[in-house]
Design goal:
globular, 18 helices, about 20% strand, 16-stranded parallel beta sheet, alpha/beta, single chain, 21 strands, about 500 residues
Length: about 500
């Protein structure tokens, strides 16, 4: 039993001290709740302990350096610790190294952990902070050495997030004066040359499929990153300190030939526009996720969304899966779209959309009160199967607007279910026969009396005859609301039963 369970238990190690304590002569001391000290200290290990340690180490596939209980490690002598670890075999099956952490005091040590664990079996490295609001302070020399080290020791990397929130700007990537020590200031050339020196080894990652980088890295390595033959998912990040990185650069022709998924965490209008213009030339791009913080910039108001953002989106005809969150982390007021705005309608309709996720975004309610918000909705979003609008309030009488989507299977909105749904929904027969799930997001409410269940269920079935369930956000609701949803689901199921 022990030998069967050990590989499962030790497959993922959370807290690097739990791995290091398997090695001889390393002492782990808890100095406080969040701080763990690591020192070299002779200690006796019995043969049976050595045998168990070898078994545990041979089972490790993933190491997560930090945990909630281990937020920071105090190491008295990093050089000695790394040398000591290297004097023993690393986990032969180690594939993933996760250095996600919660604060800047760990930044300087991330390259050292990577140096310690870089090995031929490693295929995934995630070096980042938990919050994209917190910049990452990595100096130039460590950045150069880390990229070069991984290119030598871990050439088969498939997924790489390398300091994406890096804000040590190296004098805005111009001659490095402010950020380097005097001995390092001999590096010649402009920002392009410096960045090429840092990131040129990325060209050797021929198996890289998923890359998370920042906008400065991307600007100066477009040719390198764009030529990676297997790159499928690119995530581009920036912070306010990195505003306006792209300038007038553009990727070489025939770049990003395998890219199918683009994720943007951007706080700059200019960079959003640049990336979307580039994306129109990416031949296989099918998924676009956008986290664009409109709250950070005075000039990025709703008008920009209508005049610039959506027209650019309209050029991305290959997009099948689209997600946008325009609020950042502040969650102030949603971006209000209007079904009556032809620019928005045309832009979304020009994509080949199957999945739409509009987070912190809503359509104007007066438009939804119309019987047909726009008459050709069912043809414009004919292939949409999943529609996620968690900020959109929808009453029962407005559900026919979404029942017009012929292939819709799952709808997420703020539901207000009542018996006020009118007597007509203007469908000769149900259109969305594939529809399965009607889901209420936070702030949904159901106001039904027991005697109103039957009529409401029949109305819903007239829209979606094959609906399987109504889903409610359990975490935020009292038992009485959940009971009403349960009763409505039971009535739906009863009415769907074949007559005998």
């Amino acid at each position: 039993m022990f030998y069967a369970v050990a590989p499962v238990v030790w497959k993922c190690v959370e807290g690097v001290h739990n791995f290091l304590c398997l090695l001889p002569d390393i002492k782990v001391a808890s100095d406080s709740y969040e701080i763990i000290g690591l020192i070299l200290s002779p200690r006796n290990i019995t043969p049976s302990q050595q045998s168990r340690s070898r078994l545990y180490i041979s089972s490790i596939k993933r190491i997560k350096i930090y945990t909630e209980r281990a937020q920071y490690y105090q190491v008295m002598d990093w050089k000695a610790l790394i040398s000591h670890v290297w004097s023993h075999p690393l986990p032969p099956k180690l594939q993933e190294l996760d250095l996600t952490h919660g604060g800047r005091r760990n930044d300087v040590y991330q390259p050292l952990w990577i140096k310690m664990f870089a090995c031929n079996s490693l295929v995934e490295v995630h070096a980042a902070v938990n919050s994209r609001r917190v910049g990452c302070e990595i100096n130039y020399r460590d950045l150069v050495e880390t990229v070069e080290l991984l290119s030598r020791k871990s050439p088969d990397i498939r997924k790489l997030a390398l300091f994406p929130w890096f804000v040590r700007r190296l004098a805005a990537w111009n001659p490095v004066v402010a950020s380097l020590s005097p001995a390092d200031q001999s590096y010649p050339g402009d920002g392009t040359n410096i960045a090429e020196q840092i990131f040129q080894p990325l060209a050797s990652f021929s198996r890289l499929r998923d890359l998370t980088c920042n906008s400065y890295m991307l600007r100066y390595t477009l040719g390198i990153i764009g030529s990676l033959p297997q790159l499928e998912h690119l995530t581009v990040c920036n912070t306010r300190q990195m505003h306006g990185a792209f300038g007038d650069v553009a990727p070489p022709s025939e770049s990003f030939s395998a890219l199918s998924h683009l994720t943007l965490y951007l706080q700059s209008q200019v960079e959003v526009e640049a990336l979307l213009r580039w994306a129109s030339a990416f031949p296989r791009l099918g998924t676009l996720e956008m986290y664009i913080d409109l709250t950070q910039w005075v000039f990025m108001e709703d008008a920009w969304a209508f005049t610039t953002l959506f027209p650019l989106l309209g050029r991305l005809s290959s997009i099948q899966h689209f997600y946008i969150n325009p609020s950042g982390a502040k969650h102030e007021s949603p971006l209000i779209l209007s079904f009556g705005d032809q620019i928005v309608v045309d832009s979304l309709a020009s994509m080949s959309l199957k999945t739409i996720r509009l987070d912190w975004t809503m359509f104007a309610l007066p438009i939804l009160d119309l019987v047909e918000p726009f008459p050709d909705l069912k043809s414009r979003w004919a292939h949409v199967t999943y529609l996620y609008m968690p900020m959109q309030p929808i009453s029962t009488h407005q559900l026919p607007c979404f029942a017009a989507l012929p292939n819709l299977e799952h709808l997420v909105v703020i539901l207000a279910i009542s018996n006020h749904f009118g007597s007509e929904h203007h469908f000769d027969k149900p259109i969305a026969v594939a529809f399965q799930v009607l889901e209420g997001s936070i702030d949904s409410i159901i106001s039904l009396k027991p005697e109103e269940m039957d009529a409401t269920a029949r109305f819903i079935l007239s829209l979606w005859p094959n609906i399987s369930r109504i889903v409610w956000p359990v975490k935020y609701y009292v038992e009485s609301q959940l009971n009403l949803v349960r009763l409505l689901n039971e009535r739906l199921a009863t009415l769907q039963e074949p007559c005998t």
